Amino acid sequence: MAKNTICVWYDKDAEAAARFYAGVFPDSAVHAVHHAPGDYPSGKKGDVLTVDFTVAGVSCIGLNGGPAFKQTEAFSFMITTENQEETDRYWNAIVGNGGQESACGWCKDKWGVSWQITPRVLLEAMAAGGAEAKRAFDVMMTMKKIDVAKIEAARRG
């Protein structure tokens, strides 16, 4: 068991979400599905209560807690990509499976969980600072899904 585990609240689809993530991202898996030992406010004995899973090596637990709390952009998974192909693959998997696009490399999956699909070249540009970071930042601000070629061009000036 991991020392630190991210708990993600779902209405009732934690298992479906975890299985989706495991099918999309490398180093991801569903490890265990736990059923409620008794009735609880948003479910009954035997319903899936929690799901232990990893996303890109990060230990998570999905909790089917009911509709009381909704996902917000205050929490997101940030996935660093190496190239446009990888960026497109993750973006298209999330958005194409009932999700929605947002700005600056952010999107939401169909369960409302936010994702930042972030090419390494963008992170490197921001870390470089100065005019290079400003150019990359300015072009990023015009995007939904990040366009690696445009970020690379902005870095060069």
Task: Please name the CATH topology of the largest domain.
Answer: 2,3-Dihydroxybiphenyl 1,2-Dioxygenase, domain 1
Structural class: alpha/beta
Number of helices: 5
Give the number of domains: 2
Distance between the termini: 47 Å
Number of strands: 8
Largest beta-sheet details: 4 strands, mixed
Write a structural description.
The chain is α/β, with parallel strands linked by helices and 157 residues long. It has 2 domains: 1-67, 2,3-Dihydroxybiphenyl 1,2-Dioxygenase, domain 1 (Roll), CATH 3.10.180; 71-157, 2,3-Dihydroxybiphenyl 1,2-Dioxygenase, domain 1 (Roll), CATH 3.10.180. It contains 5 helices and 8 strands. The protein has a 4-stranded mixed β-sheet, with helices on one face. A 4-stranded mixed β-sheet has the order 5-8-7-6. A hairpin with a 5-residue loop joins strand 7 and strand 8 (114-119). The longest helix is centred in the middle third of the chain and has 12 residues, at 84-95. It is elongated and about 60 Å long. The termini are far apart.
Brief write-up:
The N and C termini lie far apart (47 Å). With 157 residues, this protein is an alpha/beta fold.
